[in-house]
Design goal:
The complex is a heterodimer of chains A (493) and B (249).
Chain A lengths: L1 H15 L2 E6 L2 H16 L4 E8 L1 H10 L4 E5 H8 L8 H11 L3 E2 L9 E6 H7 L15 E3 L1 H5 L4 H8 L6 E3 L2 H9 L5 E5 L3 H5 L2 E3 L12 E5 L2 H5 L1 H7 L8 H12 L5 H13 L10 H36 L1 H16 L2 H12 L3 H25 L3 H10 L3 H31 L12 H10 L2 H29 L11
Parallel strand pairs in A: 1-2, 6-7, 6-8
Antiparallel strand pairs in A: 3-10, 4-10, 5-8, 5-9
Chain B lengths: L1 E10 L2 E11 L4 E5 L6 H8 L7 E6 L2 E2 L5 H5 L2 E5 L10 H11 L4 H15 L15 H13 L5 E5 L7 H18 L2 E5 L3 H7 L2 E6 L2 E6 L1 H6 L4 H20 L1
Parallel strand pairs in B: 3-8, 3-9, 6-7, 7-8
Antiparallel strand pairs in B: 1-2, 1-4, 4-5, 9-10
Helix pairs in contact in B: 3-4, 3-5, 4-5
Classes of the chains: A alpha/beta (493), B alpha/beta (249).
Chain lengths: 493, 249
């Protein structure tokens, strides 16, 4: 009887655990993540979507660690990045076996293939009768405009030209966004693009069929943890409804609604589920104020926790450094080296050690906070005039009491200045936390960069700047409380 | 009282104090004097063990200074340096009371003692709450003296206590200091480079040169029976030095 109750309780607990969905830091992935999360909810399960969680490595590792249960990936990325160098058989089944060898699962393709493609204006392609890339051969006078990356890539222009025996000579390298405009004004006639780009619909482009299958395929698939199948089989069953359900046109249409029409990903996902599966899900549009409050609390959590930890560690380290000269040089040296590690690199180093989201961000911020506090504690203590230290010693105060009653108060201004520097730097650095799913003011900046939306970028950048100023002001006030009055007075004579 | 036996001290390659014996006379004022770099300040710091000797021993009432005894022995000594060495973050009275409070004195006792000391040193009681930067040079030295006297120590050690004061303040404080020394009948060791000041305070004058004691005795002994040429020259040069000092300040 008792084991049965325990089992039921365990099932209840397991079932109550939400399905954690991740998405990469670009629009298409966020929309797919939103669709997955809503589909899971439709089965009655709890789900949470950790949007813009990071790049491929961050998501894959989070899945391996169990920080996430599922996220949308691309077959090309799995083959060429994630399983690169591993012995994987060609084709979808080969990849699936490769993913299973890593201890994860891969679903069937969702339908669309987001790969490199060649696009032309619909009316021009129509008038020339061009439908496939092979059809270009007959029109040697067409002008091509390709992104610099495409000009260089192994599967880019040189190999495309060789594969299709294209005779074109007027090929220009130009920036991707400019290429769309050049295409519109007929300066160029064909360009490289991703087959689900939002601009395809916006500019009315025809994506030429890769009839020789030159470009590698980037079919969208779901990758997930095997325990999801035992934990929530009905959810996994629901996900299988997405197989083949999203074609390239649908996907690029959804991308266009997000990037061009500025419709929220939640709304787009809900509309898709409604029209494709007759699944209705509520879209709660979060107000700007709510969002700001949530981000502020996320941001403050990162800054405050890392700063408090840094104070607790760095002040004693600074005292130690001031007491022992050689150890001091070592401590200051190490803190200095940490400071030179690029912020993003440090964040990524942290992931295998402490996982994703807040912990690595807090650890990285903590490490960056050390140097200013250690250095200022050290300087504040070593700058105390010799005769002052001698007077304290001659009084017959034990070393610990001298430190507490005389030396630390005398160094307080310098120590506080170090903490202030760390705090202000932290407010800025914490925006990078969004790259690894830690939220905060970096989130709208990241989303804004993705959607090319200046107002979103400002929604992150402005509060971050205001917070930095507030922190500065807070420390100016606390200086009045924490720095002894006798140190703030001007001499009378 | 204070007994230095064959103490030596070097700083790097510089020998500050050659092997030196000195016995400080209880209840008297001993003045250490000599040209700069003669080792007089080092000798004073050796007496309170904030500088440790390389060799020899420092005894206070028969007890040799050691790591275990150093705090206890220092509590029986008062130390005053040039410009006071007051802690800038503490008010005048907090500077004076710091050690007593650390040792657990109750506030009534602390207040009573500070009031008595203010009376003795003629420090204005309405300046108790002022911070060192808000006090004049002379007031700072009076606070420093109060701090040194707080536990009623057996010995007072003073390093150029009047060194940074202007002439009028200096002469007032000089007079007050001597009165205090006589009233309290304490053992005093005072460092100065000024022969007139040494003559004013010193029951015993110890003249040093290059880390050694050249002669010790009363002022008249030093004037009338100089041990060598240097003593004679040092005493003769001083009136001029005094004038120069006053002209400078």
């Amino acid at each position: 009887m008792i084991p049965l109750i325990l089992l039921l309780m365990a099932v209840a607990i397991v079932d109550a655990e939400p399905v954690r969905v991740g998405s990469k830091s670009f629009t298409e992935s966020v929309i797919l993540g939103e669709i997955i999360a809503r589909l899971a909810q439709d089965t009655g399960a709890q789900s949470e979507h950790r949007r813009e969680f990071g790049g491929t490595r961050v998501l894959w590792n989070a899945l391996l660690r169990g920080d996430l249960d599922i996220y949308p990936e691309y077959t090309g990325t799995i083959a060429q990045e994630i399983l690169a160098g591993k012995d994987v058989a060609a084709g979808e089944d080969g990849l699936r076996a490769g993913v299973e060898a890593e201890g994860l699962r891969m679903g069937r393709p969702l339908g669309f293939n987001n790969t490199y493609a060649i696009g032309m204006r619909e009316e021009i392609a129509d008038s020339l009768g061009i439908r496939t890339i092979s059809d270009l051969k007959a029109h040697a006078d067409l002008v091509f405009g390709f992104s610099n990356e495409f000009m260089d890539r192994g599967d880019g222009w040189p190999s495309l030209r060789d594969a299709y025996h294209l005779p074109h000579t007027d090929v220009r390298g130009l920036q991707h966004d400019l290429a769309y405009r050049a295409l519109e004004s007929n300066d160029i006639h064909a360009m490289d693009l991703y087959s689900t780009d939002a601009e395809i619909e916006y500019y009315g482009l025809r994506v030429l069929v890769d009839d020789l299958e030159h470009f590698p395929t980037y079919h969208a698939v779901l990758v997930y943890r095997p325990d999801l199948e035992t934990r929530a089989p009905h959810v996994v069953a629901a996900f299988s409804r997405l197989q083949g359900a999203i074609d390239s046109g649908t996907m690029s249409g959804m991308n266009k609604r997000a990037k061009v029409d500025r419709v929220s990903e939640s709304r787009i996902a809900a509309d898709f589920l409604d029209s494709a599966f007759d699944v209705s899900s509520a879209v709660v549009e979060i107000t700007v104020v709510d969002r700001l409050l949530r981000r502020t609390s996320e941001h403050l959590t990162l800054v405050v926790l890392s700063l408090v930890a840094a104070i607790l560690i760095a002040v004693p380290l600074g005292i130690l450094a001031a007491r022992h000269e050689r150890l001091g040089q070592l401590i200051l040296g190490i803190a200095g080296v940490i400071q030179t590690i690029p912020a993003l690199a440090l964040l990524v180093f942290m992931i295998p050690i402490v996982g994703t989201q807040e912990p690595p961000a807090i650890c990285a911020l903590f490490l960056y906070s050390l140097l200013p506090i250690v250095r200022n504690t050290y300087t504040g203590l070593t700058d105390i005039p010799h005769h002052m230290r001698e007077s304290a010693e001659a009084l017959g105060l034990p070393p610990g009491v001298r430190l507490r009653l005389v030396e630390l108060p005398l160094a307080s201004r310098s120590i506080l200045a170090g903490i202030k520097t760390s705090a202000v730097i932290n407010v800025g650095f914490a925006t990078l936390g969004a790259f690894i799913g830690a939220g905060g003011y970096g989130q709208p900046i990241l989303t804004g960069l993705r959607l090319d939306d200046m107002s979103l970028i400002l929604q992150g950048a402005v509060p971050a700047a205001v917070l930095a100023l507030l922190v500065q002001g807070l420390f100016d006030v606390s200086e009045r409380i924490l720095v002894p009055r006798g140190l703030r007075l001007d001499p009378v004579d | 009282m204070l007994e230095l036996t064959q103490v030596t001290r070097s700083f790097g390659a510089t020998v500050a104090v050659q092997p030196t014996d000195l016995s400080v006379r209880p209840g008297a004022t001993t003045v250490l004097i000599g040209p700069s770099g003669c080792g007089k300040s080092t000798l004073l710091r050796l007496m309170i063990y904030i500088i440790r000797p390389d060799g020899g021993s420092v005894r206070f009432e028969g007890t040799e200074f050691s790591a275990d005894d150093v705090l206890r022995l220092r509590h029986r000594m008062g130390y005053v340096i040039q410009d006071g060495g007051l802690f800038p973050h503490l008010s005048a009275s907090d500077n004076v009371a710091l050690l007593a409070r650390h040792l657990g004195w109750d506030e009534t006792r602390v207040t009573a003692r500070i009031d008595a000391l203010a009376d003795l040193t003629r420090f204005p009681t309405d300046c108790f709450d002022r911070f060192p930067v808000q006090l004049s040079g002379g007031q700072r030295q009076r606070v420093s003296l109060m701090r040194a006297l707080m536990l009623d120590p057996d010995v007072l050690l003073l390093d150029e206590p009047l060194g940074s004061l202007d002439p009028i303040v200096r002469s007032d404080l000089q007079q007050d200091l001597r009165d205090i020394f006589r009233t309290l009948n304490k053992t005093v060791v005072l460092v100065t480079h000024d022969m007139a000041e040494a003559g004013f305070f010193g029951d015993v004058i110890v003249l040093m040169r290059e880390g050694r004691i050249v002669q010790q005795g009363t002022l008249s002994q030093l004037i009338n029976e100089p041990a060598d040429n240097f003593v004679e020259r040092f005493i003769r040069a001083q009136p001029t030095a005094l004038h120069v000092l006053e002209a400078e300040s």
